[in-house]
Specification:
Rossmann fold; alpha/beta; 19% strand; four-stranded mixed beta sheet; 202 residues; binds guanosine-5'-monophosphate
Length: 202
């Protein structure tokens, strides 16, 4: 029988650089990623079923009502959520899954599945956070204000995470390596590897 897979959650405020880090982790390590559902429109280059499952708000709400979302959150006017069945199937098949979701979603996962491992990505300091949120230059003042507000809320969840990884300026490679070190260390915990002991004691 397969050992049940591990569920990792990576989140961090806008400006933490978590998207870039997660992309690098995907290139370097053999973990499976859950494809989220969202009501936001695809950005150029994004593919339905690969980056997200894109759907209308009505379709999304119907899935919530049917209990098909493992967690979900509203983020800057759109709904984002993790389809439950896909995650359950992957974990049952022994796959180690990574969710890249916002902090509200991360808290829901921890409440529903306390054994999930939560990793918080942060910029080096507050000034950098503000500069990175502003620096994209593509958002209106309202969206910037909303992102800042949300970042404050998210920082308040710090202690509920199991690990923190600081994304130093120019430090994506190091941050990605730190995330992979966490993923690998968690796989090696003694209590998850009783079968190794069994080999010695029969
Ligand atoms: P974006 O629109 O930039 O792709 O994502 C916006 C935010 O939504 C990011 O913080 C991202 O981590 C978060 N997000 C993406 N998928 C999910 C999800 O399935 N659940 C939750 N709670 N947040 C998500």
């Amino acid at each position: 029988m397969n050992k049940r897979g591990l569920l990792f959650v990576i989140s961090g405020p806008a400006g933490s650089g978590k998207g870039t880090i997660v992309s690098r982790v995907r290139e370097l390590a053999p973990f499976d990623f859950s494809v989220s559902a969202t009501t936001r429109a695809p950005r150029p280059g994004e593919i339905d079923g690969v980056h997200y499952h894109y759907m209308t708000k009505d379709a999304f709400r119907a899935k919530i009502a049917a209990g098909e979302m493992f967690e979900y959150a509203e983020y800057v006017g759109n709904l984002y959520g993790t389809p439950k069945q896909a995650v359950e199937d992957a974990l049952d098949a022994g796959k180690n899954i990574i969710l890249e979701i916002d902090a509200q979603g991360a808290m829901q996962v921890k409440d529903k599945m306390p054994e999930a491992i939560l990793i918080f990505i942060l910029p080096p300091d507050y000034e950098t956070l503000v500069a990175r949120i502003r620096g994209r230059g593509t958002e209106t003042e309202d969206v910037i204000a909303e992102r800042m507000q949300k970042a404050h809320t998210e920082l308040g969840y710090f202690e509920r995470y199991d690990y923190v990884v600081v994304n130093e300026t120019g430090g994506v490679e190091q941050a990605a390596e730190n995330v992979i070190a966490i993923l690998n260390a968690e796989k090696l915990r003694t209590y998850r590897n009783g079968e190794i002991q069994q080999k010695f004691f029969g």
